């Protein structure tokens, strides 16, 4: 089987390419520029230079592929860059969908748990949890654009698209070249951070997510069925303590107070208005990090053979990868 993977230089996409080739499949990856040799080291992946606006290249590649796993996306948690996020996460997905319909190719679309209902400590959400005013995500550009991308897939199914949708949680693991989620490991490892965010997340192993995404080609159905690929529901305080202990820094002592968070968010927003550049600290990410993004992956476990691995192993491997491949300076 020849599989076209977008986002092949990212944490999940790179893991998917490696697992596909280990299973004997042929792979082709959409890349914006020729990647560093180490990123595709050990792979026979055929790179296609372009991005999600490269309609002709996408159409041509999908025509000569058997299936598509669409991992590429723009991740920016904030209020700015909405137009850019929509071009990548919504319009780019539409280009993939249109080509898959034209050539009758199965699509596995990688969404995010940020596009489904937020869970809670007492009631993790699942794929059927309705979104209402009590569990809606913070409507920042990432959430809005990723939901729009999912809507493109659902609309495509109504036009004949064969597709499944997977929604990963907070992924950690090796092959995080950029890094993406590994940035949290770097930040916690650089210096003592006495206070952690107030909320929690659903930590999963990127290798298990990759395996389930590949399985979804055959077992995910064709009707746009959604699968949450989560794992361990954990507070950020717990997670930061686990990371800090592995990075050799002092562990956080408590959650950040609400007033301090509000001030940090407002200062970040003010800085963005003055400079025109929105950084990693802004009111959107502060509000998101104060919620409990806890989810239930039972459907994926039952239908995609999804495995929730040992959290210690995931953290050990992710931290070891970051320490080997990224500088703390």
Secondary-structure-derived class: alpha/beta
Gyration radius, rounded: 19 Å
Query: What share of the residues does DSSP label as strand, in percent?
Result: 15-25%
Give me the CATH superfamily of the domain at 2-180 and 203-234.
Answer: NAD(P)-binding Rossmann-like Domain
The global form is globular
Give the H and E element order. EHEEHEHEHEEHEEHEEHEHHHH
Which regions have little confidence, pLDDT < 50, spanning 5+ residues? none
Q: Reading side by side through the largest sheet, how are the strands ordered?
A: 3-2-1-4-5-6-10
Distance between the termini: 43 Å
Q: Count all strands and give the number.
A: 12
Name of the level-1 CATH class of the domain at 2-180 and 203-234: Alpha Beta
User: What CATH architecture of the domain at 2-180 and 203-234 would you give?
Assistant: 3-Layer(aba) Sandwich
| Biggest β-sheet strands, sense, barrel | 7 strands, parallel
Can you give a write-up of this model?
The protein has 329 residues and is an alpha/beta fold. It has a domain at 2-180 and 203-234: Rossmann fold (3-Layer(aba) Sandwich), CATH 3.40.50. Helix content is 43%, strand content 16%. The chain has eleven helices and twelve strands. The chain has helices at 11-22, 55-63, 82-103, 141-158, 182-190, 206-219, 236-247, 258-275, 283-289, 298-303, 311-325; strands at 2-6, 26-31, 46-49, 67-70, 106-110, 163-168, 170-172, 195-196, 200-205, 223-229, 232-235, 254-255. The strands form three sheets. A seven-stranded parallel beta sheet has the order 3-2-1-4-5-6-10, sandwiched between helices. Strands 7-9-11 form a three-stranded mixed beta sheet. Strands 8-12 form a two-stranded parallel sheet. Strand 1 (2-6), helix 1 (11-22) and strand 2 form a beta-alpha-beta unit. The mean pLDDT is 94.
């Amino acid at each position: 089987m020849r599989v076209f993977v977008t986002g092949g230089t990212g944490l999940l996409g790179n893991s998917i390419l490696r697992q596909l080739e280990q299973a004997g499949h042929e792979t082709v990856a959409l890349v914006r520029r020729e990647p560093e040799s180490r990123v595709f080291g050990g792979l026979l992946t055929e790179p296609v230079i372009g991005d999600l606006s490269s309609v002709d290249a996408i159409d041509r590649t999908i025509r000569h592929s058997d299936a598509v796993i669409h991992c590429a996306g723009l991740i920016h948690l904030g209020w700015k860059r909405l137009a850019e996020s929509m071009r990548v996460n919504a319009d780019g997905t539409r280009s993939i969908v249109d080509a898959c319909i034209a050539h009758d190719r199965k699509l596995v679309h990688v969404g995010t748990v940020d596009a489904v209902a937020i869970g809670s400590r007492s009631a993790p959400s699942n794929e059927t949890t309705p979104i209402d005013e009590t569990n809606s995500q913070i409507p920042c550009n990432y959430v809005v654009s990723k939901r729009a991308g999912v809507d493109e897939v659902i609309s495509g199914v109504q036009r004949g698209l064969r597709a499944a949708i997977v929604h990963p949680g907070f992924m950690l693991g090796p092959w995080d070249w950029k890094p993406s989620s590994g940035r949290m490991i770097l930040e916690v490892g650089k210096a003592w951070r006495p206070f952690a965010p107030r909320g929690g997340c659903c930590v999963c192993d990127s290798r298990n997510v990759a395996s389930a995404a590949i399985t979804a080609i055959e077992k995910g159905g064709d009707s746009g069925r959604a699968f949450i690929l989560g794992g361990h529901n954990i507070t950020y305080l717990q997670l930061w303590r686990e990371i800090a202990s592995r990075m050799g820094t002092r562990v956080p002592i408590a959650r950040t107070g609400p007033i301090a968070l509000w001030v940090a968010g407002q200062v970040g927003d003010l800085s963005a208005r003055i400079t025109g550049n929105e950084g990693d600290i802004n009111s959107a990410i502060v509000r998101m990090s104060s919620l409990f993004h806890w989810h239930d992956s039972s459907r994926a476990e039952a239908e995609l053979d999804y495995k929730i691995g040992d959290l210690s192993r995931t953290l050990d491997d992710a931290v070891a990868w970051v320490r080997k491949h990224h500088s703390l300076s």
